[in-house]
Specification:
This protein is mainly β and about 290 residues long. About 0% of the residues lie in helices and about 50% in strands. It contains one helix and 22 strands. The strands form five sheets. Strands 1, 2, 6, 7, 9, 12, 13 and 14 form an eight-stranded antiparallel β-sheet that branches. Strand 6 and strand 7 form a beta hairpin. The longest helix is centred in the middle third of the chain and has 4 residues. The chain is elongated and about 70 Å long.
Length: about 290
Amino acid sequence: MKYALLLLSLVTLQTHAQIIYTDVVPDSVFADNGDTCHLDLNNDGTDDFLIRLNRSTGSCPSPCSGPPYLLHPSSVSIDPMPGSAVSDTLVQQPMMLAPLRVIDASLAWETTTSQSLSSFSVHCITFMGEQVCAHNLSGGQWQSGLSVDSSRYLGLSFTAAGSTHYGWARISIPHAQVSISSFTLKDYAYNSVPDEFILAGEGADISTGIAGITRSSVQVFPNPTSGKFTIEGLDKSRVTSIEIRNAIGQGIQRSEIKGEQTGIDLSSQPSGIYFLTIRMAEQVISRKLIKQ
């Protein structure tokens, strides 16, 4: 069994403001059964995630009657280490995030092991009275091969010194024809500021302006609040979109305003944690609000 360690790869580190970016050079390709990517998102010497290729190769027997009916299963799965989590839309099937997707506490997060990114196997079916192999059992958000044709990201979080940090990893998994052949880790990044969001792909190319997003200009007060609060520091020359979600990601309120500040009232909502996503032109700002 072959294990590819990132510590043995040549990596390039770049720091832009609070975004710490790591470029894996060359890209790390995992193509053998059991190959495991030991992903240390903040490069502190401790694995935050294990991404593993499980691959059973061979030809489909003909006829394929009798058990086992699932033949040559292959998969790419991820194990969050203690204190880490992966963003999910379905239980144990991590999201495939498009560039600029906000990664923060408002996403659904999963901490269980063996979360399936992509899976594929063949099985026996009866066709014209005979048992034949059908290559049509697949699953996982990453099954389509889209991550090969365009950049797609895993949304990740980890805990350091008791605080949560958000990050991403760009990987690609080809669409399976008979078996999943490999997966590739290209780069990754995290926000060194605790509890602050990061955009998928942020830090990878600062010339795009992605990493230049203003985070500190917008203030939310009072915080904690009993219900009413003010957002200040908005761009008065542009329309600002404000979206509020509760702790489980449900949309509570959405509005568009033009002005330097606005007042919002959540008195009718229960006590708890809320997340604000504020969009002003190219800027995306995330804030956490506590309602007492």
